[in-house]
Amino acid sequence: EEDWSPEQAVCRLKGDGFATVHHETIYQFILTDKKNGGQLHSHLRHQNKTYRKRYGSAHNRNGIVNRVDIDERPKEANNRERIGDWEGDTIIGKVFSFHEQIAKALECNVYFAKPYHSWERGQNENANGLLRQYFPKSMSLLDVTEKEVLEAVHKLNSRPRKCLGFKTPYGVFERNTGINMRAVFEIALMT
Question: pTM surpassing 0.85?
Answer without folding.
Answer: no
